[in-house]
Design a protein that fits this description.
With about 160 residues, this protein is α+β, with helices and mostly antiparallel strands. The chain contains three helices and eight strands; from the N terminus they run αββββααββββ. The chain is about 20% helix and about 30% strand.
């Protein structure tokens, strides 16, 4: 299945998605320019998730750095591709929308939104006429639409972020 601009407009842009100014304490969300944003009804939930996560940033950053530091006096350089990331996740009550916040070893944070797309299709009990394997052995396939919302940045100037 290919997602065309028409499908994206029909199901995402047309559903009142927006990029509101989002500031929590000393942090603000810098929206990705390709992001469609979030539905206005999700703002309270996203803000609540970020409010709960931000107090853990200092300890999380220290944890990532301690995992990268050498334990012995020998010089140790970790491949940046193997460097650990910390992942915070939140799902809404229905489990249809989740927010994922990733913190990298340099302290940068990325925020993603994943929406479960419900497939409305009648499945037969068999994959094909020649197969004796029931679809129930594998469960129903699930489809998710993941989009990058942006970065959570620390406001060093003490004024509103550029949203």
């Amino acid at each position: 299945m290919k997602f065309t601009e028409e499908l994206l407009f029909r199901y995402i842009k047309a559903n009142e998605y927006e990029k509101p100014k989002l500031e929590i304490g000393s942090y603000y969300l810098q929206w990705d320019e390709k992001s469609y944003g979030i539905h206005h009804k999700e703002l309270f939930e996203l803000k609540g998730f970020l409010t709960k996560v931000i107090p853990y940033f200092d300890i999380t950053y220290q944890l990532i750095n301690s995992l990268e530091r050498p334990r012995s006096k020998e010089r140790f350089v970790m491949n940046k591709g193997l460097s650990p990331d910390i992942h915070f996740s939140h799902r809404n009550k229905e489990g249809l929308v989740s927010y994922d916040l990733y913190m990298k070893s340099d302290g940068s944070t990325l925020l993603d939104r994943t929406e479960k797309i419900q497939i409305i299709k009648q499945y037969s009990n068999k994959f094909s006429a020649t197969s004796n394997v029931s679809i129930t052995n594998f469960g129903k396939p699930e489809l998710f639409l993941k989009s990058k919302l942006g970065q959570l940045l620390f406001n060093r100037q003490g004024r509103s972020g550029p949203n």
